[in-house]
């Protein structure tokens, strides 16, 4: 494993990835616990999740000096804020926003993993996370007429799976942090 500043920064702030994973799992469980939510409440919950995830991504990106995470964070924050300003958007518009956000986010994750594949081990976790995200976006575009309960469960399933993958990555980063801290910069 090379001692790239970005890897060292991410490993040193593994807990931010852990918090992102926990937030994703909490969001997913909430989607399963209350599947009968009105679309307006789903909009607000998703907006809160996008905002929190965006803040954590931005923090991780700034601290690690990693541009892709900074962009992802800014997009998440913007999506969350827009959701709160216009909560009355239609279900189809929300689905399109989530779908395109998921596809773009997944492509960014896959791109980052490919870029880092020679520098880190276990990049498959980030690739798998990106694939899950792209699949979610594609499914939402293909089946926009699905009922609110189905959409809540689909989004909940994705959030839990993504959260678990982020937890795995966080603990892998924590291990790398221990090894990198023992090595000179």
Please describe the topology of this protein.
Elements: H1 5-12, H2 14-33, H3 39-64, H4 67-85, H5 91-116, H6 124-142, H7 148-182
Helix pairs in contact: 1-3, 1-7, 2-3, 2-7, 3-4, 4-5, 5-6, 6-7
User: Rg from C-alpha positions?
Assistant: 17 Å
The string of secondary-structure elements, in order, is HHHHHHH
As a percent range, the share of helical residues equals over 70%
Low-confidence stretches: none
Range of strand content: under 5%
User: Which class do the helix and strand fractions yield?
Assistant: mainly alpha
CATH architecture: Alpha Horseshoe
Notes on the structure:
The longest helix is centred in the last third of the chain and has 35 residues. This protein is 83% helix and 0% strand. The protein has a single domain, classed as Serine Threonine Protein Phosphatase 5, Tetratricopeptide repeat (Alpha Horseshoe), CATH 1.25.40. Helix 1 crosses helix 3. The chain is an all-alpha fold and 185 residues long.
In short:
With 185 residues, the chain is mainly alpha-helical.
């Amino acid at each position: 494993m090379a001692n790239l500043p970005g890897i060292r920064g991410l490993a040193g702030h593994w807990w931010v990835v852990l918090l992102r994973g926990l937030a994703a799992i909490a969001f997913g469980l909430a989607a399963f616990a209350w599947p009968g939510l009105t679309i307006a409440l789903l909009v607000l919950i998703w907006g809160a999740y996008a905002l929190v995830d965006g803040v954590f991504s931005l923090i991780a990106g700034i601290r690690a000096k990693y541009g892709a995470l900074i962009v992802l964070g800014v997009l998440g924050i913007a999506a969350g804020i827009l959701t709160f300003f216009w909560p009355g958007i239609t279900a189809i518009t929300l689905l399109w926003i989530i779908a395109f956000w998921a596809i773009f986010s997944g492509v960014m994750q896959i791109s980052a993993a490919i870029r880092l594949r020679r520098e880190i081990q276990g990049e498959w976790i980030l690739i798998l996370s990106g694939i899950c995200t792209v699949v979610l976006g594609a499914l939402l575009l293909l089946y926009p007429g699905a009922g609110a309960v189905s959409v809540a469960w689909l989004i909940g399933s994705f959030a839990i799976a993504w959260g678990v993958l982020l937890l795995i990555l966080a603990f892998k980063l924590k291990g790398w942090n221990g090894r990198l801290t023992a090595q000179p910069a």
